[in-house]
Amino acid sequence: MASRWGQYAGKAAGLMALLSLGACDLAGPIMASPVPPGRPVGLSPVAPPPAPASQTGLSDESRALSIYYQRLQNDLLAQGLLRTDGGGPDTTFTDTILARNFVRIALFDEYVATAQGLRAQPTISPLRRWEKPVRFSIEFGATIPQDQRTRDSNTVRSYVNRLARVTGQPMSVTNANGAPNFRVLVLNEGDRAGFEDRLRQIVPGIDETSVRAFMDVPRDTLCLVLAFSQNNSPEYSQAIALIRGEHPDLMRLACVHEELAQGLGLANDSPQARPSIFNDDEEFALLTTHDEMLLKILYDDRLQTGMAAAEAAPIARRIATELLGGPV
Q1: N or C: which end of the chain has fewer CB within 10 A?
Q2: What is the domain extent for residue 293?
């Protein structure tokens, strides 16, 4: 599913914005990974869920998007995609594959900023992550119904707890008064219209490229994340994730899983990564065991924020070997 989930990058006004927007077809990796096993065939199609109930207060555009995304989810499920099992005997991987996937996903950008906007150009990058506690908040657009707000709030809280356990990085969910630095915005199209002022309030000094990336979102971009650092530092200081409210439950959950994880520093996608959500083939909907290991590597104390890829790669290989039970 091209141009659905992935990573963009741009910087201006002393801020570096990492925008997760579309498919990532990484070229020129440091190391070539073996071609992964073929995707499973003959999977039993999952019965599609019923069409969403009608909602009041939605714009015609939002209603049309709700129908489109429901059909898209149904099609993916019928193909045996959007798996929620985290991987299994059909998706084995070695420490070598895990380490190489880490390099592709954590140490590359897919896009660069130019005067004309964002341009696809795979570019090596230093290791980026959070050093300070990550304080998430959840903000809903006015047209998001209460039952969906409850489900999504529970989803984000549970997932943040999981990310904190996996990474060892302090994380919590707070409200607007708790000085959040990672905001999860669940918005329908009508909610997003005119959101520029709120965006500039959340991120003072945000550059126009980032504003336009948030406001001008094509239909085939399912969700996005913008992560910011101060003075071009590799240490993240703020992030904003956009989750489309029109998505059916599973696709909305998939967006939460990928965008929050990418906003922690797994900035790129790779077609070789499997079993993984950091891949544009949509085989997996939710964070896998492989992806948890990527996060463990990223937040291991033996790696340092800002470390160059050439220095980080051999350390990542040693950590990957430990995680998979090999010799230290």
Answers
A1: C
A2: 8-27+84-323
Nearest of 69, 84, 76 to residue 222 by alpha carbon:
69
Cis check: omega of the bond before 275, within 30 degrees of 0: yes
Residue whose structure tokens are 């504003």:
211
Give pTM, 2 decimals.
0.84
Is 52 among the domain residues? Answer: no
274-to-94, 101, 122 alpha-carbon distances in Å: 11, 9, 20
**What is the count of structural domains for the chain?**
1
